[in-house]
Amino acid sequence: MPLGRRTARTVPATTRTTRARPSLKTRLLGPKRTAARRAPATTTTTTTRTTQTTGGHHAGHTTGHTGGHTTGHTAAPAHHHKRHASMGDKVSGAMMKLRGSITHRPGLKAAGTRRMHGTDGRGSHHVY
């Protein structure tokens, strides 16, 4: 008369897997994109030529010892018009920069910088 079992009884275990809720960033940005959207890195060789400008439309209007020839130097850029950026513009621009950094969108990041500095061109399209 056997008093005990020699083999262990196998009971089917019910496993319940729980997944964490997606974060706010994941829900806003969607699923992770693969690296397939970027073009493969290629090596390109670029050759440049240095050219010297001589004469041109304003050749006779120059002064100095060059005799009317320019040496390829460009003038200083004109003053970039800025508007006064409000606190709201600075906060909004900082959020745009942050969003551009997180989503790897350099254009959005640059637009945020321009908004923070007041050089985004808002208010400059006034028609009289």
TrEMBL record:
Residues 1-88, 108-128 are annotated as: Disordered. Residues 117-128 have a biased composition (Basic and acidic residues). Residues 37-64 have a biased composition (Low complexity). This is Uncharacterized protein.
